[in-house]
Design goal:
This protein has about 80 residues and is mainly alpha-helical. The protein has helices at about 10-25, 30-45, 50-55, 65-75. The chain has one domain (about 10-75). The radius of gyration is 22 Å and the shape is elongated.
Length: about 80
Amino acid sequence: MQTKLTLRLENTLIEQAKNYAKQHDKSLSQVVADYFQILTQQSKKSGISPITKSLIGILDSNRDESDYKKHLEEKYL
């Protein structure tokens, strides 16, 4: 079931959104619906933001905590 939704936005943002919808051959309603769908799917999958997810595994897991402490002591003491 579809229901009408009223949004209050800046005129420039509305025009940008309309242009985006037109460029992608979609209605503005479909663009908004797609965006809300993405938002709700992401929050259900994980409480971790995409930026945080991208950082997972960036550190070498073979190094233990004492190596990091040693590095900090050498650098700052």
